[in-house]
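Lecture 7, part B: from sequences to assemblies.

Below are the input chains for today's worked example.
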Amino acid sequence: MTVALIPGSFDPPTNGHLDVIERCSRLFDEVVVAVIKNPSKRALFTEAERIDLLATVTARWDNVTIGVFGGLLVDYAEEVGADVIVKGLRAVTDFDYELQMSQMNRHLSGIDTMFVATKPEYGYLSSSLVKDVSSLGGSVDSLVPEVVATALKERSG
Ligand code: PNS
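Predicted structure of the full complex, as structure tokens:
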């Protein structure tokens, strides 16, 4: 059985995240989506809110579960028995840092990272931009799942 671990801040989850999760749910036996406890960037949504949103939007896939981690990702990977870390890549600008992290993680525990190229239509999509657009009154309805759009609207007032 192959277990894939998809880590991230997910503040909030976007359609780009969902696309990667869906594709992994078809490629791997089990997928653990792991929310980092204290993202370096100040989070709009609490850890519990990010977990709830992810649980709602991934409920249709039986082999996807949501977890939460603090500390080293490789320690969490070992805890959940992950065989591989999966990251979505939007553009070459993502690549340098992602490559560096994947090599560090491999150095630390031997775990491999696989990269999934996001769909081109999600190439410009990021949680930060979604938060910006929503807080300034723009529509994010086609960029995030409905439940996330609603949560953003409530948060923006
Ligand atoms: O959604 P994000 O903000 O791009 O996710 C970043 C994340 C959570 C994947 C990254 O910050 C991470 O892996 N953090 C874990 C800390 C860690 O293990 N660092 C050392 C090895 S690179």
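Note for the exam: The mean pLDDT is 96. Keep this in mind when comparing with the next example.
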